[in-house]
Amino acid sequence: MTNILVTGGAGYVGSHACKCMAGAGFVPVVCDDLSSGHRWAVKWGPLEQGDIGDRAHLDDVFAKYQPAAVMHFAGSIQVGESVANPALYYRNNVANTLTLLEAMLAHDVKKIVFSSSAAVYGEPDSVPIEEWSRKAPINPYGVSKRLAEQIFDDFGPAYGLRHASLRYFNAAGADPDGEIGEGHDPETHLIPIILQAASGQRARLDIYGTDYPTPDGTAVRDYVHVTDLAAAHLAALKYLLGGGESVCLNLGTGKGYSVREVIAAAEAVCGTPIPAREKPRRAGDPPALVAAADRVEDVLGWRPQYSDLRQIVETAWRWHNRQA
Ligand code: UDP
Q: Ligand 1 within 6 A of 205 CB?
């Protein structure tokens, strides 16, 4: 059995990736401090609880499991928080990534699949966004992801590191089998918030911005099912283990939906009107983010299977009701 070290494996995307890897015969060894991840989400391999900024802890985990590669999900993910507290983002997403890389190299582990983000692009000049499009992140979160990619690139020629940096667009949905799902605290993401409003857990949702230059005035995003993201991580892992070169890839569907379209889809799935009020734009939100998704298909043979908007909302709704 091949062990894969999964930092942040108790989190939303990380736990879905663990399930997917276990289904393919890998053993996901989760390294997570449970600061935002959940013990209940670790089901497919051992949990080594600890901070990836703690080099001694990492050395113990690498020595114990001798992983063939690393999947690196651990990090801070809230754009607004990154503006208010950039030190946290540079510590968690850059400095700790460097510590992880140093531990990897010390243990001769040279392959990493990384959770990057569409935030590396900032406000795109046009959509869909290609991988080679200008990288001009507009908040510390996006900068931190871009810096990590840059470190990986520099570590290639110098130390033989190979990385697959996967730039997620909007991760959404839940495991179709209902075993795991999204559970952020506080919740800031659109679909879980819509579902909370649908079930009466919150009085209403706020629509941030109705004056965008989009067909209905609300912001457009490319929502990709978390199970599809997980499958892409597995494909990237196999690609690197098979000798593939370093690569940065968008993970999106190529299709964008407005906030109002997502609300309408949720009303259809939940069978209830969803109370919403119009609010000003949220700082730092670009009008539209949609991936050009052909490169990932060329390199990894990956295409989304679950990312139809209705399926995204249905799986999220099932998970939401199970938790409630
Ligand atoms: N959004 C909204 N109300 C909310 C949360 C999000 O209108 O309560 C909008 C947000 O402005 C963005 C889209 O929904 O245009 C997706 O936001 P989310 O926070 O889910 O992901 P992001 O695109 O910021 O990564």
A: yes
- Among protein residues, the one with the nearest Cα to ligand 1's atom 21 is 189
The architecture CATH gives domain 190-221+254-323: Alpha-Beta Complex (3.90)
For residue 172, the ligand 1 atom closest to its alpha carbon is 20
* Separation of CA 218 and ligand 1 centre (Å): 10
Domain boundaries, the chain: 2-172+224-251, 190-221+254-323
CATH architecture of 2-172+224-251: 3-Layer(aba) Sandwich (3.40)
Phi, psi of 2 (to 5 degrees): -100, 125
Say what the alpha-carbon torsion angle 191, 192, 198, 201 is, to the nearest 10 degrees. Answer: -160
Give the H/E segment covering residue 283. Answer: none
Q: Which of 141, 168, 223, 257 is catalytic?
A: 141
Check if 174 has its Cβ closer than 6 Å to any atom of ligand 1: no
Catalytic residue list contains 12: no
- d(Cα 42, Cα 46) in Å, to the nearest integer? 8
Q: Is 261 in the pocket of ligand 1 (CB under 6 A)?
A: no
Measuring CA to CA, which residue among 218, 191, 190, 219 is closest to residue 286?
A: 219
Q: Say what the pTM is.
A: 0.97
Is residue 140 a contact partner of residue 75, using CB atoms and an 8 Å limit? no
pLDDT averages per 10-residue partition of the chain, 324 residues? 97 98 98 97 98 98 98 95 96 98 98 98 94 96 98 98 98 97 89 97 97 97 98 98 98 98 98 98 90 98 97 97 70
Let me know if the fold of 2-172+224-251 is the same as that of 190-221+254-323.
no
Cis peptide before 186 (omega within 30 of 0): yes
Q: How far is the CA of 282 from the centre of ligand 1 (A)?
A: 8
Report phi then psi at 24, rounded to 5: -100, 10
